[in-house]
């Protein structure tokens, strides 16, 4: 078990070293910072408080976070396969799951830095410029609070990690950079709008008989949006939004994450098995 953990940490450290040398992440962070501050100023402004700021940036964050996650992860495994690194790693005592989780964890650190730094800066600006009432932690409905903004950050980070897992699975399935781009675009559309449309069409066509709030938890975007409404915005606007079932949404995001990493692991294992079979036939 220790050897497998050492293998995981080796892959994780490699990803971190690569991230520190990649200036693309700095550009993504700067771009996302400009977007969220532009949205906040175009709306109510940071001085309006935490909840109005979340309302201003939520819709675009819901789209930009998956886009950034796919930009970070869509070539994470494909590049190793193209360069032959994956074939070399197959000769080491490196289990496929340790490789996939190591890649995912390293990319997750980079992704969370890109996504959370702009939002943390925005939260600091709100804290410095908003009315004194926003410094009071909410204990009842109708009070703006930094605690609510922290909830928004946690949910956004969870959504980003879920989307990154899907991107890593896409990367494991692609055998070329062109196919990785194509699959990433398809995956991004599925995350942002595809799953929502499928759920709504299934309901309207009578294909399924389930509660809308529960069924929306199946879609990553709807699950994230619903959790923000239920655990952040409802404190200021109503007793309960009723947009989505919180257990269903949490289960949906967790299911997408674990399922995607499982798909990536099986894809890497299959690729390694194919390489081993070819070497055996050549021998």
Number of strands: 0
Q: What is the average per-residue confidence, as pLDDT, rounded to a whole number?
A: 82
Sequence stretches where pLDDT stays below 50 over 5 or more residues: 136-140
Number of domains: 1
Total DSSP helices: 11
Shape: globular
Q: What amount of the residues lies in strands?
A: under 5%
The major sheet is characterized as: none
C-alpha end-to-end distance? 32 Å
Helix and strand element order: HHHHHHHHHHH
Q: Could you estimate the helical fraction of the residues in percent? A: over 70%
Taking all Cα atoms into account, the compactness measure Rg is 21 Å
Class by alpha and beta content: mainly alpha
Summary?
By secondary structure, the protein is mainly α. It has one domain. It is 79% helix and 0% strand.
Folded structure, characterized:
- The protein is mainly α and 283 residues long.
- The chain has one domain (2-282).
- The protein contains eleven helices and no strands.
- The chain has helices spanning 2-21, 24-42, 50-73, 78-83, 85-89, 96-129, 146-173, 177-204, 212-215, 220-237, 246-282.
- It is globular.
- The protein starts with a helix and ends with a helix.
What does the secondary structure layout of this molecule look like, with pairings?
Layout: H1 2-21, H2 24-42, H3 50-73, H4 78-83, H5 85-89, H6 96-129, H7 146-173, H8 177-204, H9 212-215, H10 220-237, H11 246-282
Q: What distinguishing features does this structure have?
A:
single chain, 11 helices, globular, 283 residues, mainly alpha
């Amino acid at each position: 078990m220790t050897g497998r953990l050492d293998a995981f940490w080796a892959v994780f450290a490699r990803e971190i070293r690569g991230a520190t040398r990649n200036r693309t992440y700095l550009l993504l962070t700067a771009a996302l910072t400009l977007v969220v501050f532009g949205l906040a100023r175009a709306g109510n402004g940071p001085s309006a408080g935490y909840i109005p700021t979340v309302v201003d940036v939520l819709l675009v964050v819901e789209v930009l976070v998956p886009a950034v996650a796919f930009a970070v992860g869509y070539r994470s495994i494909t590049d190793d396969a193209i360069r032959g690194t994956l074939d070399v790693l197959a000769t080491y005592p490196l289990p496929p799951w340790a490789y996939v989780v190591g890649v995912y964890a390293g990319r997750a650190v980079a992704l969370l830095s890109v996504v959370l730094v702009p939002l943390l800066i925005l939260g600091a600006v709100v804290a410095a410029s908003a009315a004194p009432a926003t410094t009071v932690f909410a204990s009842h409905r109708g009070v703006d609070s930094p605690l609510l903004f922290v909830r928004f950050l946690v949910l956004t980070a969870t959504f980003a990690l879920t989307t990154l897992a899907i991107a890593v699975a896409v990367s494991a399935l692609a055998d070329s950079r062109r196919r990785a781009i194509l699959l990433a675009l398809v995956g991004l559309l599925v995350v942002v709008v595809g799953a929502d449309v499928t759920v709504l069409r299934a309901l309207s066509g009578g294909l399924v008989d389930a509660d809308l709030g529960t069924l929306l938890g199946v879609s990553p975007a709807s699950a994230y949006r619903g959790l923000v409404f239920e655990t952040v915005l409802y404190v200021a606007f109503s007793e309960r939004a009723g947009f989505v079932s919180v257990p269903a949404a949490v289960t949906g995001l967790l299911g997408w994450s674990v399922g995607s990493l499982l798909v990536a692991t099986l894809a890497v294992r299959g690729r390694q098995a194919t390489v081993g079979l070819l070497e055996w036939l050549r021998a």
